[in-house]
Design goal:
8 helices, alpha/beta, six-stranded parallel β-sheet, 45% helix, Undecaprenyl pyrophosphate synthetase
Length: 233
């Protein structure tokens, strides 16, 4: 039934480093590189499943605590993705948006993100949100501060509602998530869009992200449908 279809899918792509260690690679970056391949496949799988919105957790605010070498390599990988794969995104009809606090990003990285968003802004088959330098608590604090400034400067009324506050979040104009998938074995959201996942169903799997497959996506979607049917929604 249409009412049991996932409109907005969230994915916490966890397990890249463990995958690299399990396969005895000298660098954990091999896991991140394989994870990017799986992520690109995921976009196609979502299109196949008729999912119009996809949000993925690519780099959290906590990830800045990793070694400087790994952080630097991750952003090099990000730049390669936006440079080399953006043409594929356009062919697939994927509109790319990056959500997060970009204050710590270099000017080069911010420009690369801007160029990717501009290049895909007219794509309409899949709306892809990449959470980059993102933390849910940070997002809520920044939204609250922006609302307070608008009230102070006369641009907003002091009577705050959920609908008004939602317009100050990174996801303004995007529906809340219906289902969140987390790979890698942990059973928590880890600061992943706490406002937007309030009523989402959660699907956890021990499979590490680079080994995630279209079959596992179908399993998660079947789980969502069964939960909705059992709840009579």
């Amino acid at each position: 039934m249409a009412e049991h279809k996932v409109r907005h899918l969230g994915v916490i792509m966890d397990g890249n480093r463990r995958w690299a260690r399990q396969h005895m690679f000298a660098s954990v970056m091999r896991g991140h590189e394989k994870g990017v391949d799986t992520f690109i496949d995921l976009c196609e799988w979502c299109e196949n499943a008729g999912i119009p919105y996809l949000t993925v957790y690519a780099f959290s605010t906590e990830n800045w605590k990793r070694s400087q070498e790994e952080v630097s390599d991750l952003f090099k990988l990000m730049r390669r993705f936006f440079t080399n794969e953006i043409g594929r995104c356009i062919r697939m009809g994927v509109k790319v948006r990056c959500l997060g606090n970009f204050e710590r990003l270099s000017e080069e990285d911010r420009q690369v993100i801007h160029d990717a968003e501009e290049a895909t802004k007219d794509c309409g088959k899949l709306s892809l949100q990449i959470a980059l330098s993102y933390g849910g608590r940070d997002e809520i604090i920044r939204a609250a501060a922006a609302f307070a400034r608008d009230v102070r400067d006369g641009r907003a009324e002091a009577d705050l509602t959920e609908e008004v506050f939602g317009q100050y979040l990174y996801t303004a104009g995007i529906p809340d998530m219906d289902l969140v998938i987390r790979t890698g074995g942990d059973r928590r959201l880890s600061n992943f869009f706490p406002w937007q996942t309030t009523y989402a169903d959660l699907y956890f799997t021990d499979v590490l992200w680079p080994d995630f497959s279209e079959e596992l996506l179908r399993d998660a979607l079947d789980y969502y449908r069964s939960v909705r049917i059992n709840k009579g929604k």
